[in-house]
């Protein structure tokens, strides 16, 4: 064992010296007003926001907890303040097709004003128009029209009477029409008189009566024409009067919206419709029959007057700049809008006043932020969103009707869409959409990728302090002292398992800051110190580590068999990481290897029992490559190897134990025992180089906890890949134990270095013929492999001769 492989005490943990801060508390520094370590993402977002061409919508990727949502909203809100405020949107009736209402853009902040103006107009017309039709000039004109046409009708009826007298007939009006009667000396025949006439005379009178009926029909057609002309003239008079009243009141609205041609066109069409339906504004005499079980006419009239209302879909009052909308629940209706219905006179009805906008229209002229995972869980949303962005048109539709459900509904005219959509998501949905959706890359051309770490420099440490100051300001927390900030910085290092990096997962960092404030207030402190930060982290772990403690009890009680002292052949302590939510911890597992004659090669018991994953299987298969490269260059290997994780009954994956398995095999072949006080982690390649692994801190701390519970001897420790030294951020108890000589951390780059530390024996170097010195460990392995081969050949000869 050589001291050169021992990791220096200074490399076990990176301490943040509070002396580098030139403040007493975070209340003395400016809160953070920029983004830490996300230059790539910020530049991409800025580019996407400034690109006005079609298809440059933004897809933001990155791990959870990196502050994507907050950062994106901050950047977009700053950009939105410099943009013009888009118009309000009002839905109005389409007087040409009531099933296709129209959305009108109205200058910002005037949508509600426009709606109120029309409401006042309708209320005013319900008073003014009846008064207009009750004025003396209007009534006199109506009387004059009626009198003139009445005289014409009188003349026709007088001529009809004269013609009847000439034919000895008389015309009488009855409830069923006009009746022609024969007369004698000015009086109609009685029934007896008529029947007493000769038959021939009766026929002549009947013929004369029938012939006169044609004259009556001619007169009646002319009277009908006169009545129609009279009604038309009265209607024209009413239209002129109504148009005069409407014109004077609508001119005020036209002046206010002179620069809005769509509104002027709507007002013109509305005026003509009001003139045509002026009766809606007049009082209606209600007959007794109308007081039955049905709805009163007043209700019907009021419902009909809804055609002149304005449905304000979006009101930009109070908005400075472009809108920024975050849609937390992107259902179809929440994004595209909905068409509601209500019961009226025994049936479900709808009109343009019951159309509601969605977040796309709310964000029109600005920015819409959504999470892609939520979008993909709602049917039809993704396809409809792509269609809207490609066509730059928003269609508010009744989904129930489009799916063949419900009754006929409205189909509002499409709305011109000018919105920038920003989707937030992880790498997996981005890759799926990019690879399998051909339209995705044409619409979302900008990718903003958030990092989860940043290089640790004096500048980033200073920004960390400003970040803490910002959280304290925004959340109204107690200020942090310099040593409190230093502890948070160290937490940021440990969270990323690197002395040279700081975590950008500010969600968890903010949680530590808030909890440290809680413990400071529990002590009635006026500031947060390092002790409070450590307390916050300790308490957080205590709340979540019940499972960890239960597993640890199995080691203490020897339910799980682990030796942390002594030596054993073909037996090594490997290290595994358990992940329970956000809590990860390491614990040792015993690996054993048995070697014997045969041709099976390396038998992985986990793989044979289907308890291992693909990565673990790959690591075991690599062992055959290393053994062949090292010991089978001049003659074949003739052995079988059985490798397993003892007391493992659940799935195993990962290749971080491949070097451990190789050490166990070498020990079994050489019969050289391995120190059980040393645990090992690290993957290996076919050339015998030890490669970096994950969770190195949890693995070291986990083995240390077991050793401490079973008793520290001063000869215990963990052997890690040299490439993982930069990741060391061990807890204080481990560092103190190393400092006191009770525990050791070794670094190795090759299998040869590792086996020498584990056994205290030299691995050996081969000569030109590929032979290792017999006294070395590899020499013993080589000799054992030769013995296996020779013995197998001896056993094979008798078998061949017998055959």
TrEMBL record:
Residue ranges the record marks as coiled coil: 202-240
Q: Where are the transmembrane segments?
A: none
Q: Where is the Lon proteolytic domain?
A: 566-761
Please name the GO terms of the biological process aspect recorded for this protein, alphabetically.
protein catabolic process; proteolysis
Concerning Pfam families, the annotation shows:
AAA_32, Lon_C, LonB_AAA-LID, LonC_helical
Q: Record's InterPro entries?
A: AAA_32, Lon-like_helical, Lon_proteolytic, Lon_Prtase, LonB_AAA-LID, P-loop_NTPase, Ribosomal_Su5_D2-typ_SF, Ribsml_uS5_D2-typ_fold_subgr
Q: What is its EC number?
A: 3.4.21.53
In this protein, the active site sits at 656, 699
GO molecular function annotation = ATP binding; ATP-dependent peptidase activity; serine-type endopeptidase activity
Q: Which reaction does this chain catalyze?
A: Hydrolysis of proteins in presence of ATP
List UniProt keywords, sorted A-Z.
Coiled coil, Hydrolase, Protease, Serine protease
Family membership, please give it.
Belongs to the peptidase S16 family.
State the name under which the record lists this protein.
endopeptidase La
């Amino acid at each position: 064992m050589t001291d050169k492989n021992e990791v220096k005490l200074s490399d076990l943990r990176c301490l943040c010296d509070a002396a580098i801060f030139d403040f007493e508390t975070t209340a003395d520094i400016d809160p953070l007003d920029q983004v830490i370590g996300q230059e790539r993402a910020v530049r991409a977002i800025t580019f996407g926001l400034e690109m006005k061409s079609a298809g440059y919508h933004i897809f933001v990727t990155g791990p959870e907890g990196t502050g994507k949502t907050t950062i994106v909203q901050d950047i977009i809100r700053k950009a939105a303040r410099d943009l013009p405020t888009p118009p309000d949107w009002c839905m109005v009736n389409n007087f040409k097709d009531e099933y296709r209402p129209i959305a009108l853009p109205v200058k910002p902040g005037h949508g509600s004003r426009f709606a109120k103006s029309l409401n006042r107009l309708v209320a005013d017309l319900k008073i003014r128009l009846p008064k207009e039709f009750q004025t003396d000039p209007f009534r006199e004109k109506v009387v004059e029209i009626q009198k003139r046409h009445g005289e014409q009708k009188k003349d026709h009826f007088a001529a009809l009477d004269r013609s009847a007298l000439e034919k000895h007939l008389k015309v009488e009006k009855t409830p069923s029409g006009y009746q022609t009667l024969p007369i004698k000396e000015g009086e109609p025949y009685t029934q007896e008189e008529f029947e007493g006439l000769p038959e021939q005379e009766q026929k002549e009178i009947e013929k004369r009566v029938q012939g006169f009926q044609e004259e009556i029909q001619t007169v009646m057609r002319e009277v009908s024409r006169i009545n129609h002309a009279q009604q038309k003239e009265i209607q024209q008079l009413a239209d002129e009067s109504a148009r005069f009243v409407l014109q004077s009141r609508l001119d005020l609205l036209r002046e206010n919206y002179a620069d809005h041609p769509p509104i002027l066109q709507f007002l013109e069409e509305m005026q003509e419709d009001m003139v045509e339906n002026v009766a809606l504004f007049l009082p209606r005499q209600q007959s007794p029959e109308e007081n039955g079980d049905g709805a009163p006419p007043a209700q019907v009239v009021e419902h009909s007057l809804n055609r002149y209302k304005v449905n304000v879909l979006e009101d930009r009052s109070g908005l400075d700049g472009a809108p920024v909308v975050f849609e937390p629940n992107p259902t179809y209706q929440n994004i595209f809008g909905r068409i509601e219905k209500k019961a009226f006179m025994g049936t479900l009805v709808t009109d343009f006043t019951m159309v509601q906008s969605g977040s796309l229209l709310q964000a029109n002229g600005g920015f819409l932020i959504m999470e892609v995972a939520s979008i993909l869980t709602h049917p039809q949303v993704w396809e409809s969103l792509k269609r809207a962005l490609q066509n730059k048109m928003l269609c508010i539709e009744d989904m129930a009707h489009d799916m063949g459900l419900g009754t006929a509904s409205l189909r509002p005219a499409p709305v011109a869409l000018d919105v920038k959509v920003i989707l937030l998501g992880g790498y997996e949905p981005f890759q799926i959409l990019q690879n399998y959706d051909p339209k995705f890359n044409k619409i979302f051309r900008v990718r903003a990728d958030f990092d989860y770490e940043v290089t640790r420099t004096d500048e980033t440490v200073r920004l960390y302090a400003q970040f803490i100051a910002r959280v304290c300001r925004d959340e109204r927390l107690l200020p942090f002292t310099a040593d409190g900030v230093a502890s948070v910085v160290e937490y940021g290092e440990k969270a990323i398992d690197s002395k040279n990096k700081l975590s950008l997962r500010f969600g968890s960092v903010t949680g530590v800051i808030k909890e440290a404030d809680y413990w400071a207030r529990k002590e009635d402190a006026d500031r947060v110190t390092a002790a409070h930060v450590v307390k916050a982290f300790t308490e957080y772990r205590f709340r979540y580590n019940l499972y960890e403690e239960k597993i640890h009890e199995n080691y203490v009680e020897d339910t799980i068999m682990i030796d942390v002292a002594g030596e054993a052949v073909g037996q090594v302590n490997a290290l595994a990481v358990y992940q329970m939510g956000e809590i990860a911890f390491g614990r040792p597992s015993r690996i054993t290897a048995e070697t014997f004659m045969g041709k099976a090669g390396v038998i992985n018991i986990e793989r044979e029992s289907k308890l291992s994953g693909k990565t673990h299987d790959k690591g075991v298969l690599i062992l055959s490559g290393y053994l062949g490269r090292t010991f089978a260059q001049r003659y074949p290997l003739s052995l079988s190897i059985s490798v397993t994780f003892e007391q493992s009954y659940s799935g195993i994956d990962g290749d971080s134990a491949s070097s451990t398995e190789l050490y166990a095999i070498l020990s079994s072949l050489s019969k050289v025992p391995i120190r059980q006080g040393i645990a090992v982690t690290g993957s290996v390649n076919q050339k015998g180089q030890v490669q970096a692994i994950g969770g190195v801190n949890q693995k070291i701390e986990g083995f240390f906890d077991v050793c401490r519970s079973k008793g520290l001897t001063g000869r215990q420790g963990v052997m890690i890949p040299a490439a993982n030294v930069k990741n060391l951020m061990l807890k204080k108890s481990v560092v103190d134990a190393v400092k006191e000589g009770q525990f050791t951390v070794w670094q190795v780059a090759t299998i040869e270095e590792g086996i020498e530390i584990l056994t205290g024996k030299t691995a050996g170097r081969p000569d030109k013929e590929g032979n290792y010195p017999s006294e070395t460990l590899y020499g013993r392995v080589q000799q054992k492999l030769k013995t296996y081969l020779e013995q197998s050949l001896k056993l094979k000869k008798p078998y061949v001769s017998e055959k």
